[in-house]
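Thread: Modeling a multi-component assembly for a lab meeting

Hi all, long-time lurker, first post. My supervisor asked me to bring a structural picture of a complex we are working on to next week's group meeting, and I have zero experience with this. I have the sequence lines for every component (492 residues in total). Could someone generate the structure of the whole assembly? Inputs are pasted exactly as I received them:
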Amino acid sequence: MNSFVSTYKKSVNNLENISCKHCALYRICLPKEASECELYALDNIIDRQHNLKRNTWLFNEGDPFKAIYAIKSGCIKTYRLTPKGKEQVCGFYLPGDIIALDAIETGIHTCSAKIIQATHVCAIPYKKFETLSQAMPGLQQQLVRIMSREIASQQWFVTLLGKKSAEERVAAILCNLSDRLEVRGYSPNELILGMSRHDLGDYLGLAIETISRVLGRFHQDGLLTAKGKHIQLHQPDQLRALAGYS
Amino acid sequence: MNSFVSTYKKSVNNLENISCKHCALYRICLPKEASECELYALDNIIDRQHNLKRNTWLFNEGDPFKAIYAIKSGCIKTYRLTPKGKEQVCGFYLPGDIIALDAIETGIHTCSAKIIQATHVCAIPYKKFETLSQAMPGLQQQLVRIMSREIASQQWFVTLLGKKSAEERVAAILCNLSDRLEVRGYSPNELILGMSRHDLGDYLGLAIETISRVLGRFHQDGLLTAKGKHIQLHQPDQLRALAGYS
DNA sequence: CGGGGGGTTGATGAGTGTCAATACCTGTGG
DNA sequence: CCACAGGTATTGACACTCATCAACCCCCCG
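Re: Modeling a multi-component assembly
Sure thing. I ran the full set together rather than chain by chain. Output:
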């Protein structure tokens, strides 16, 4: 059972051997139409892994780069450790997202990826992908688009960290998750967070106590109901306004 | 006269019509060896603009995306406006850097690019580039590498904003600029900043007064000499340690 | 039933932002 | 050449947000 939302999609249950063409995440994963043969070729090099358990790592900072990963289900956080041993979460990645793009140039992972909810991923061995895309430039155009999207979303995040108050940050991440879940076919107002308060704090640059307090205040103001990881948004528009849009 | 460093390189003076092959920034701009014909093809589509004046814009948030830009000289900041009208600087870009990568997917610029020191850029029309790379996949591999580098460097920046104190932030950006200037052949310890304290503050998520105070403290401690935009690093190693590495 | 991790709540203080006054540069026009 | 104006940087006093520390609760799991 996917833990993000109550209305779980049956179609994503048997994940291991679905081809890209028939994958429910097709629209999210690949930004523009891909040709039949591109999809077929991609299918052939994809290494379908399964069942990554909670609290395990997909890769670690410093590991050699082998593949990029498409998430089929679950939730992964990427993070970097500061010299003092604190972790800065760089992103929460949901089904359809692609990670490890930061490692392509150096060949070394610059962040760690930890499974925070039972997850399935497709591994796309990068060497094979590069070879393949010599013949199929369309494939690499897809990759460029995905990377562009990642850069734009990091800019959004940078603005959040640089300029927003604690309330705005919490509101913003809730709206952001809501939007992303909606695109994936889930209810936008019934979130079941995949991450702990601790993770949220390490993402937003706030202490867990602050997260807790802000959520409490939102709760009191009738904006939402927060019970542990279950969050119901009652006034999403007002939350969005508070976030300074999402 | 380039304003970043006192030891200005003569070779970059006549910038307008130099081909990529002979450009002094070749090694920085293109992450891996490019073939003769790739370079030649690239040269042919590049639109060489010149003489962008200080305090003008290369593009603005919301503008339609036409081209990516390689900086030949000068300094550009990219930024996004918050709903309250404050600006979050997303990055300072130096000669050899490439900007507008965030706009490829949506076709709309997600940030503004302002010239903060007289600048020369090469514009690479993206449509033409895409067409060209159908025939030359190596070109697009270059782009992927550049984008990967950008993503990794944004992760560094996110860690700075999320986890570091004012002192660490200022130390970190100084070390970062020092490193980047050194790669470009300038002295690493004699910085002439292209950006104002205001820009620095809007980048680091700090008030200008805080920047000023931190620099003052560093000055007192003998780490550096700061006189307006001229900054001499006296103890770069200690600064680096303070930054929690760069 | 008991233990432990995760979450909440309260009191306090440190680190920065804000506001205001002042000094400093830079370019402009007389 | 100097005087002036406008932007830019510095310095000080104060306020406020948020981190820290500590106690407690809740709930899940063994």
